[in-house]
# Entry
Amino acid sequence: MNTRRRLVAANWKMNGSLATLGAWANALRGSYDSKAWAGAVEVWLAPAFPLIAPARGALLGLPVRVAAQNCHEADRGAFTGEVSLSMLRDCGAEGVIVGHSERRHIFGESDQRIAKKLSAVLEAGLPTILCVGETEPERDAGQTNRVLETQLRNGLGDTSAAAVQQVVIAYEPVWAIGTGRVATPDQVAEAHSFLRSIAAATMGPELAGRCRLLYGGSVDGKNAPALADLPDVDGFLVGGASLDSGSFRQIIDAAGGAR
Ligand code: PEP
# Structure
């Protein structure tokens, strides 16, 4: 038994609208039960940038942290199309996801760029979810641990012991994201145990023991309970299934009930 509080984060990617946000928040509010959820599970919603401020209003009174899916590391300047952390904070963001595989593989973000973003988020005083994960060819080539170690070590950079406590790590195998091919409990257990050992080597065993490790990749209401039961799984980062409030609620319940 550990004391790590479960975390379930919804990553809406480039989906959602004011109308769907309102309906989602209302449905979640309707099913909200403070005993079953608030104590056991921390919940985040990371919508697209324009929905961050409206989400704060729509979710008023519910214990849901509104987060951003990305940020720029600079505070201001000539970076057309980018959004800074002070802007995100201004809109009500209370956390940021960095290093999502779509940022890495579609937008070409390097480990070094991700480290800069992570450091800027922590400097802004916000918690962050750092995503790491191997591609299918990397897994097939037996490179999974090497990729995870490199992404984690490089992503954390020289983050101080005080700041690293604001970092949540999400293991998201790229081949499982949005594909319906969820990783098996054995694969998740192995990767999470390895990630915790690398966290212990970088931040020390005490902080690593407190660091939350999320799994992400085709999680839904059906597969979440078995994964939530694994000792090193502290919650989920959820894409597709988070768009449906009923499925998302099932995942919250699975995360809260399994330990
Ligand atoms: C994600 O985008 O982080 C993710 C895990 O997506 P999905 O749940 O759709 O696989």
Q: What stands out?
A: The longest helix spans residues 185-203.
